[in-house]
């Protein structure tokens, strides 16, 4: 049975839905699916790093030994052994994190949405870095906040700007490690100052840290979470250290906040997939990440070096860029008169893609900026792509 003349849809979307927009990156990614395109656009981790066999064995083991639990509904806060494991790994000598401070989420992106839901009202002031992670701006936008852009310099976010602009803010969203999009890292001194400033002003400080483990040398810098566990909401993810397709992340915070987020999550999706949580626990419980993460670091660090070298060789004078100490991104600043969106239109004609910087700004955009990702393209193609991009930029100088 089917209507003979189906009615055309003219339903009214909510005001909230009316102001939703597709992510610019997702739109660009459609173009970059073409194999001839050299894409520095995606924020995708390299599939070379995915531990496919290990995951396969773990799925097998979990399903054989605990199949009925793994395929059943689970608790909203997440699989207890995994939460215990994460709590222990985040604890330091003088800062113990408890499992009840942890909520497992379907990717840290869901954590951003839930935080928006429980912390932001229409018109609430929220503080974000200049520039900031586009996906967070999108997630928070749904709740119609007033974005306040915190000043940054070549060393990242400037804490004094939080003090100057933050009065009454509902949250401060910060990316201290190998920031998306700039690749910058916040010094220990600035972390401490930011933690103190937010604590003094009563502003919840969100520390989003999906790239923190991907440092190219030395050890990761201390987490702001451990500097003040009562004032910081920490977000972690398995996307960049295992695989993004499993959609698994976590939010860590004071228990009253976690209970509130849990209520919001219940309404959103009941709980994060039990099977994937059990599989990830199976994969990491005996220290697998300790061997696996260094291989990702080495791989990404080499890729980054290749791109930086190519940029030095092929980009004209007057163009500057960041030198990340970890993560997946380089941020490029062109001379003021070059609009990177227009440059992208041309670059795509030459089968090169990147993400123009504009959408990463919550307020006034610096249109002469762009983001390059170096992890999914082979060294030869990085060289080829950067050479072509260099020529296109030179033509506009
Ligand atoms: N935060 C940042 C800064 C990111 O770059 C990303 C993914 N690109 C996310 C959060 C979302 O990650 P997940 O896959 O855990 O949802």
From TrEMBL:
Keywords, alphabetical: Aminotransferase, Pyridoxal phosphate, Transferase
Location of the Aminotransferase class I/classII large domain: 49-389
Coiled coil: none
GO BP field: alpha-amino acid metabolic process
InterPro entries named in the record: Aminotransferase_I/II_large (IPR004839), Class-I_PLP-dep_aminotransf (IPR050859), PyrdxlP-dep_Trfase (IPR015424), PyrdxlP-dep_Trfase_major (IPR015421), PyrdxlP-dep_Trfase_small (IPR015422)
Pfam family, one: Aminotran_1_2
CC cofactor: pyridoxal 5'-phosphate
GO molecular function: pyridoxal phosphate binding; transaminase activity
Highest taxon in the source lineage: Bacteria
Assigned protein family: Belongs to the class-I pyridoxal-phosphate-dependent aminotransferase family.
Assembly description: Homodimer.
Name by which UniProt lists this protein: PLP-dependent aminotransferase family protein
Species whose genome carries this gene: Undibacterium jejuense
């Amino acid at each position: 049975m089917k209507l003979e003349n189906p009615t055309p849809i003219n339903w009214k979307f909510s005001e909230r839905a009316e102001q939703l927009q597709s992510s610019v990156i997702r739109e660009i990614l459609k173009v970059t699916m073409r194999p001839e395109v050299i894409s520095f656009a995606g924020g995708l981790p390299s599939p070379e790093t995915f531990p496919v066999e290990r995951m396969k064995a773990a799925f097998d083991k979990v399903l054989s030994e605990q199949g009925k639990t793994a395929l059943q509904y689970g608790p909203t806060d997440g699989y207890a052994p995994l939460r215990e494991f994460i709590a222990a790994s985040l604890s330091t000598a003088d800062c113990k994190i408890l499992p009840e401070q942890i909520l497992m989420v379907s990717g840290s992106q869901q954590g951003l949405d839930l935080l928006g839901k429980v912390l932001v009202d229409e018109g609430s002031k929220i503080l974000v870095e200049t520039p900031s992670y586009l996906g967070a701006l999108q997630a928070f936008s749904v709740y119609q906040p007033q974005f306040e852009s915190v000043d940054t310099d070549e060393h990242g976010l400037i804490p004094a700007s939080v003090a100057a602009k933050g009065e009454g803010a509902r949250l401060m969203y910060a990316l201290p490690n190998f920031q998306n999009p700039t690749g910058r890292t916040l010094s220990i001194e600035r972390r401490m100052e930011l933690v103190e400033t937010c604590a003094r002003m009563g502003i919840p400080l969100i520390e989003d840290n999906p790239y923190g483990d991907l440092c190219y040398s030395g050890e990761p810098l201390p987490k702001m979470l451990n500097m003040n566990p009562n004032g910081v909401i920490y977000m972690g993810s398995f996307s960049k250290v295992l695989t993004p397709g499993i959609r698994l992340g976590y939010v860590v915070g004071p228990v009253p906040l976690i209970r509130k987020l849990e209520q919001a999550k219940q309404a959103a999706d009941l709980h994060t997939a039990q099977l994937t949580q059990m599989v990830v626990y199976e994969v990491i419980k005996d220290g697998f990440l300790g061997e696996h993460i260094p291989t990702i670091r080495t791989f990404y660090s080499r890729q980054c070096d290749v791109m930086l070298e190519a940029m030095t060789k092929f980009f004209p004078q007057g163009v500057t860029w960041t030198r990340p100490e970890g993560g997946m991104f380089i941020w490029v600043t062109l001379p003021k008169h070059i609009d990177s969106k227009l440059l992208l239109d041309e670059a795509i004609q030459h089968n090169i893609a990147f993400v123009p910087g504009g959408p990463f700004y919550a307020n006034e955009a610096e249109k002469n900026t762009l983001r390059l990702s170096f992890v999914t393209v082979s060294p030869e193609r990085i060289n080829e792509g950067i050479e072509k991009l260099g020529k296109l930029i030179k033509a506009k100088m």
